[in-house]
Design goal:
The complex is a heterodimer of chains A (115) and B (223).
Chain A (H helix, E strand, L loop, with lengths): L2 H18 L2 E12 L6 H12 L8 E7 L2 E4 L5 E3 L15 E5 L3 E10 L1
Parallel strand pairs in A: 1-2
Antiparallel strand pairs in A: 1-6, 3-4, 3-5
Chain B lengths: L1 E10 L2 H16 L3 E6 L6 H12 L5 E7 L4 H7 L5 E5 L8 H7 L9 E5 L16 E7 L6 H4 L1 H5 L3 E5 L11 H11 L4 E4 L8 H14 L6
Parallel strand pairs in B: 2-5, 2-6, 3-4, 3-5, 6-7, 7-8
The chains are: A alpha+beta (115), B alpha/beta (223).
Chain lengths: 115, 223
């Protein structure tokens, strides 16, 4: 349950960006959360709602896009989705696998209300 | 006036990763191979460290950072072996972060060969935080069950080493060693697996030899 610590980092970034652009309010926060990011979206939402009170993002809506794990086999080049977290190529059984996406934990974009 | 959309694309763990990279580099320069031990509570991290301390005593110098939510108990156990140990109590946080390690680093004597970091007992959150380690080890004790790799994939995926502990209990438990090995290697085909018992000593010498080998591979600049 390290979601609160992640949200605390998120708010540092939000306040910085809002300051840079002289925003009055943050109205939307969009995150990209990989299946293998190690965080639970629901817990991020609760932590966000708890954290935002009394801040510039008090009325902000949190949008979370969940990113499935996608891998690529370096042996045969096949790309596939891996819902079972198996790092074995389903076409050639190769194990030299590269992760394309699904581990990220990114603040993608924000929407600001500017005076 | 009005709305403005800003594309940020910021890695929310980026700050921790950056601090971890600096720590990893500093420890490499100092010739200190750093090992992050992760597992559930009670799987035998501290006991393993006590055994490693005994086996390494005549061959290398080691220091330990202990992470726990509360108490100095683990660090005291390690100090009783004559090993320098620092306790980080997180006061509730479920994992260590790189900046916590950074604060201890100036106190670690320069002539160490190894720094072992025992993470907070938890198979989930520590996996998301690099601490500046060169090697990440996940421990799994046989009483925890053979279904854990698939349940907690991130810890197994991001580790170089899986240390199965309490192997002496295997005859008494419905624990399928083959299943664990197979499922762990599916998640991470490069994972190196050691089957160990702190009670009988099984596998410990091999593990320590492996650590010494990795220490020799560390590219330390000449003084």
């Amino acid at each position: 349950m390290h979601e609160l610590s992640i949200i605390s980092g998120l708010f540092d970034a939000l306040l910085e960006k809002a300051g840079e652009h002289g925003a009055r309010e943050v109205t939307l926060v969009k995150l990209r959360v990989g299946k293998l990011s190690g965080v639970v979206p629901e817990l991020l939402e609760s932590a966000f709602d708890m954290y935002k009170k009394g801040t510039i993002a008090e009325k902000a809506k949190l949008m979370i896009e969940e990113i499935p794990l996608r891998i690529r086999c370096r042996t045969c080049g096949a790309e596939m989705r891996s819902d079972e977290f198996a790092f074995v190529c389903t076409s050639c059984r190769g194990t030299d696998i590269e992760i394309l996406e699904g581990t990220e934990l990114f603040l993608e974009k924000i929407e600001l209300e500017i005076d | 006036m009005g709305k403005k959309e800003i594309i940020v694309l910021k890695d929310l763990l980026g700050t921790n990763k950056m601090i971890a990279a600096e720590i990893r580099e500093e420890l490499r320069k100092r010739g200190i191979l750093t090992v992050n031990l992760m597992s559930s509570p009670g799987s035998g991290k501290t006991t393993l460290l006590e055994k490693i301390a005994d086996l390494l005593k005549s061959r290398a110098r080691m220091a330990v950072i202990e992470g726990d939510i509360e108490t100095e108990r683990d660090a005291e156990r390690i100090r009783a072996k004559g090993i320098p140990a620092w306790q980080i109590t997180t006061g509730g946080a479920c994992h260590l972060e790189a900046k916590m390690i950074g604060r201890v680093l100036p106190d670690v004597e320069p002539d160490m060969d190894f720094l072992f970091i025992e993470n907070v007992g938890n198979l989930v959150c520590p996996a998301s935080y690099e601490l500046g380690e060169h090697l990440r080890c996940v421990l799994l004790s046989t009483p925890e069950g053979d279904d854990k790799p698939k349940k907690y994939p991130k810890a197994f995926m991001t580790s170089e080493v899986l240390i199965l502990t309490k192997a002496d209990l295997l005859p008494y438990l419905p624990f399928d060693l083959e299943r664990v090995t197979k499922e762990a290697l599916e998640i991470n085909p490069k994972l190196r697996i050691f089957v160990t018992s702190a009670l009988t000593g099984e596998g410990l010498r091999e593990l320590v030899d492996y650590f010494l080998g990795e220490r020799r591979k560390l590219q330390v600049p000449r003084a």
